[in-house]
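User: I'm putting together a teaching handout on how sequence relates to shape, and I'd like one worked example. Could you take Cytochrome c from Rufibacter hautae, show the sequence you're using, and then write out its predicted structure as C-alpha cells right after it?

Assistant: Happy to. First the sequence, then the C-alpha cells directly below it.
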Amino acid sequence: MLLMVLPMLLLYSCGTARRSEPILGPLALQTQQLENGRVVFMQNCQRCHPLGEAGLGPSLNNIPLPGVALRFRVRSKAFFLGIGRMPSFKKHEISREQMDELVVYMKALRRHKTNDAVASQ
C-alpha cells in the first residue's frame, strides 16, 4: 500500500507552486491549540508559505491532505530529496504536540479560506 501511495505523493509534490485565493480577513483563533499552531507555523513555515499561500514554497491552502499526510510531508526529508527545497523538521525541532497543533492550525487556515470563498459568492 505504501509503495503505491508514495509514488503518487512524489508526483503530486512535483507540481509548480500555484497561488490560491488570498484569505479574506484574519483567522479568529478560538483555542489555545490554534494559537500554539499559529506560533509553530510562524516560526517554521511562514517564510516559504506566507499564510498558507504560495511563496518560495507552494500554497498549502488548496492541498486537501489529511493530518497524517501533512505530518509525513513535514517530517520526511527523503520524500523531497532532489525534488523540492523543503527541509524536514525532526522531532527535536517540532515536537509531536507542536506537530498536532500545527496540523490543527493548517486545517483551520484551509477551512477559513473555504468559508470566506463561500460567503463572498
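A couple of points you could highlight for students: DSSP finds four helices and no strands in the chain. The helical segments are 2-13, 32-44, 67-75, 96-119.
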